[in-house]
Amino acid sequence: MAVWHPNTQMSEWAGLPEVASARGMWLRLSDGSRLLDGVASMWCNVWGHSEPRLVRALASQARVLQHAPLFNLTHRPAEELARGIVSFSPGMERVFYSDNGSSAVEVALKMALQHAQASGTGARRIASLENGYHGDTAGAMSAGFMPGFFARYRGLAFRAVRLPSPDGYRTPRSMTHADHAQRCLEKAEARLSRGDVAALVMESGAQVAGGARVYPPRFQRSLGRICRRNGVLLIVDEVATGLGRLGSMAEYHAQGCRPDIACYGKMLAGGYATIAATAATGRIYRAFLGAFGDKRHLFHGHTFTGNPLAAALAVENLAMYRERRLLRHVRGMASELARLAGGLRGIPLVGDVRCAGLLAGIELVRDRARKAPVEPPVSANRIIFEAGRRRGVYLRTLGSVVLLVPPLAMGPGDLRTLVERAGGAISDAAPALLGRVDARRYLRGRG
Ligand SMILES: Cc1ncc(COP(=O)(O)O)c(C=O)c1O
After folding, report:
1. Residue 100 CA: which ligand 1 atom is closest?
2. Residues 392, 300 share a domain
3. Distance, first Cα to last Cα, the chain
4. Rounded distance between C-alpha atoms, residue 16 and residue 51, angstroms
5. Which end of the chain has the lower number of beta carbons within 10 A, N or C?
6. Ligand 1 atom nearest to 42, measured from its CA
7. CA 195 from chain center: how many Å?
8. At which of 323, 350, 378 does a domain end?
């Protein structure tokens, strides 16, 4: 095997299971076994796998135009998709394409900094929320600097202003969750009023990689207002939570806030091809206009920016959202997921269950009273993945939080199977996670 896998301690794996094909909500491995896709293939799959309409859209675009750059040229799929994105993104007028969510955030940061220069404010710093995550490239990593992920690359990162974010599970004892959120807002206002911050970047609705932390009501809206009052641009990162994950196309709209820039990725092409978008208001866009010699244009562009195969898939995907009333389905399934996942609280290892839309975070603790996370000698992800594999479900954890992020079109039967199997996997894995059996023996099937 020659592949170096992402965010993976390779020594924990003797070999990785090989996916041979996938259909509907199921991945089929080369040994003939099947795994229910509990993480929507890293939170991007919408309709399940091998959806005939998307496959046809890909094939018919492939017959006509596979790639043409957006440098000096344009093409129908890119134009049509940009109109679609603008139509569901209140306030946005222009769409800049890239290939992945991290790049969409990088672009947004560059837009914000250059906008600040053009407006002569002198503000140069980027602010973000604690536990916020925005991708793995240098700028996105700096904005979402979680030491647990990125400590090794501190030398590569710029220093973002990290503002506190409310934590419903570990709220200080003396405070209610609402008081804590209010305290965070007061601190944000005090910091953003200093005049040195060009933009605040935040995930919309919930912090996903940071452990499925759902914002309290009105928190995002209030932060947006604080930004406005203090002349700070607001960048919303919709990469994980937009496009229906929490039940709305533009989650920022559901949260009642009016950002200057919005980033989309992951589910844009249904999870079948890589494309991301950074949408900006007309005010931002116009700040980049001028004579060529003024050097006001956006200095950014990738070879595959707006690739026609991915863009055509995305156009078809968005049409299916409308025709199949996907958001209505998501909202219905969201209450079902919350109900089912809530039932996992009965497992002694489960400290907290947090849900929003079709996202559930199940936090595993070794001591409920102290809320101390599990700390096995190999990664919790490796153990949980193995336990899930034995029960026929594909799971991935972030730290000690098991994330359930099903494809948006998953129906009630598969959803029930997913939660039951995830609960079973957590229970099976408990002795290894708590160090009561040797985790390495467990992984070899002997624990
Ligand atoms: C909120 C958020 N922003 C950005 C990214 C980065 O996206 P990508 O992995 O496509 O670069 C992610 C990825 O999980 C994310 O959750």
Report:
1. 10
2. no
3. 27
4. 26
5. N
6. 14
7. 29
8. 323
Kindly state whether residues 296 and 337 are assigned to the same domain. no
What span, in angstroms and rounded, lies between the C-alpha atoms of 29 and 62? 27
One domain, residues 177 and 266 = yes
Centre of ligand 1 to C-alpha 240, Å, is 6
Going from the Cα of 134 to the center of ligand 1, the distance in angstroms, rounded, reads 6
For residue 385, give the 3-state DSSP assignment.
helix
Q: Which of 323, 349, 383 is the last residue of a domain?
A: 323
Residues 316 and 350 in one domain: no
Domain residue limits at 388: 326-443
307-353, pLDDT tens digit by residue?
A: 999 999 999 999 999 999 999 999 999 999 999 999 999 999 999 99
Q: Residue 21 domain-assigned?
A: no
233/30 Cα distance (integer angstroms): 49
DSSP 8-state symbol, 216? P
- Does a structural domain hold residue 291? yes
Is 421 part of a structural domain of the chain? yes
For the stretch 119-172, pLDDT in tens is: 998 899 999 999 999 999 999 999 999 999 999 999 999 999 999 999 989 988
Same domain, 270 and 179: yes
Q: Which atom of ligand 1 is nearest to the CA of 241?
A: 1
Which atom in ligand 1 lies closest to the alpha carbon of residue 105?
A: 4
**Ligand 1 pocket, Cβ-based, cut-off 6 angstroms:** 100-102, 105, 133-135, 203, 208-209, 237, 239-240, 265
What 3-state class would DSSP assign to 262? Answer: strand
Our CA angle for 28, 31, 423, nearest 5°, is: 60
Ligand 1 centre distance from Cα of residue 203 (Å): 10
Locate the ligand 1 atom nearest the alpha carbon of residue 140 and give its number.
4
Number of domains in the chain: 2
Which tokens is 149 given?
A: 């992920």
Among 128, 266, 267, 398, residue to substitute to test ligand 1 (most atoms within 8 Å of Cβ):
266
Ligand 1: which residue has its CA nearest to atom 3? 134
The model's pTM: 0.98
Centre of ligand 1 to C-alpha 89, Å, is 19
Is 121 in the same domain as 225?
Answer: yes
Q: Per the domain annotation, does 172 fall within a domain? A: yes
What is the per-residue pLDDT for 412?
Answer: 98
Claim to verify: residue 229 and residue 103 sit in the same structural domain: yes
Query: Ligand 1, residues 107, 134, 142: which to mutate, most atoms within 8 A of Cβ?
Result: 134
